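F.,

This is the one I mentioned.
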C-alpha cells in the first residue's frame, strides 16, 4: 500500500515574541505499507520541552517502525494487544533519554505530549498521551478520533515524561484503510483551526482545500505549502501556540 505523507511544524506567536524556537515536532516512516507517524508538543513550562518533543517523536517513530515492520501488526486486533507492544517501546525511549540527560536537567524538563499512529491496509491504531488530536477520515464510513485528554483545568494535560504516563496511554483502533482515506495527527495548536467545534473530526473549510491541493502535490511542494499554512497570519490570529501537523493519504 502506498502512502503520501506531508508534515510541518511552525512557531506560534508566544515563542515568536520571545524569539524562541518551535517546541512541536512531527516525524514519520513508511515501510512495506506500514505508516508510523508521531507528533509531539513540548510543554511550555518545561525548559527543554522542544528537545524532548524532537527526541520522542524521532525515537518512538524509529523504535515502532523497526518493531512493527519486523513482526507485523497484532493478529489480535485489540487495544490490549497494541498496548502490550507499544508501551515497552515508549518505556525504552524514556530510558534512553533519561540516560543521556546531563544534570541538573531531568526527564521532567523534557516534558511533551505524544500522539501517533500505526496504520496499514488492514487497520492499525492511534496511541496518545495528553492533548493534541488524531483523526482517521475514511472516504466512506465513520470517522475515528483520538481526542485530547486534559487535566482538571483546560490548560492542563499529561506528558510522556510523567511518572504515571502508562495510566494516560490511550489506544484507539483504526478501521481497515482504502484508497483516498486520510490520517491526521496534530498538536493542540493545530487542532484550534483544523478540528470542528463539535470535535467530531476535521473542520471541512480547512481540510477540504488542503487535501485537494496535497493530493496533487509532490512531497517538496506539499510540505512547503503546509509550512506556509501553519505560519500564516490567519493561523497566528486563531492561536498563539506552536503548531505541528501530519497528513497521510492512502494512495
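My design for it:
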Amino acid at each position: 500500500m502506498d502512502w503520501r505523507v506531508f508534515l510541518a511544524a511552525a512557531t506560534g506567536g508566544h515563542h515568536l515574541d520571545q524569539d524562541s524556537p518551535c517546541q512541536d515536532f512531527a516525524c514519520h516512516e513508511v515501510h512495506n505499507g506500514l505508516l508510523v507517524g508521531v507528533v509531539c508538543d513540548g510543554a511550555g513550562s518545561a525548559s527543554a520541552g522542544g528537545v524532548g518533543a524532537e527526541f520522542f517523536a524521532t525515537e518512538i517513530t524509529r523504535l515502532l517502525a523497526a518493531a512493527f515492520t519486523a513482526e507485523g501488526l497484532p493478529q489480535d486486533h485489540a487495544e490490549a494487544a497494541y498496548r502490550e507492544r507499544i508501551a515497552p517501546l515508549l518505556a525504552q525511549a524514556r530510558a534512553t533519554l533519561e540516560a543521556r540527560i546531563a544534570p541538573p536537567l531531568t526527564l521532567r524538563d523534557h516534558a511533551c505530549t505524544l500522539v501517533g499512529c500505526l496504520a496499514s491496509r488492514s487497520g492499525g491504531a492511534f496511541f496518545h498521551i495528553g492533548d493534541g488530536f488524531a483523526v482517521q477520515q475514511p472516504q466512506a464510513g465513520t470517522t475515528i478520533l483520538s481526542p485530547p485528554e486534559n487535566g482538571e483545568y483546560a490548560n492542563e494535560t499529561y506528558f510522556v515524561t510523567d511518572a504515571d504516563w502508562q495510566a494516560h496511554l490511550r489506544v484507539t483502533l483504526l478501521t481497515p484503510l482504502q484508497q483516498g482515506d486520510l490520517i491526521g495527527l496534530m498538536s493542540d495548536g493545530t487542532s484550534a483551526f483544523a478540528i470542528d467545534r463539535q470535535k467530531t473530526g476535521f473542520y471541512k473549510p480547512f481540510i477540504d482545500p488542503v487535501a485537494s491541493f496535497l493530493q496533487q502535490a509532490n512531497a517538496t511542494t506539499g510540505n512547503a505549502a503546509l509550512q506556509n499554512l501553519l505560519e500564516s497570519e490567519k493561523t497566528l490570529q486563531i492561536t498563539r501556540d506552536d503548531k505541528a501537523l501530519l497528513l497521510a493519504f492512502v494512495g
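The first strand starts at residue 3 and ends at 10.

Talk soon.
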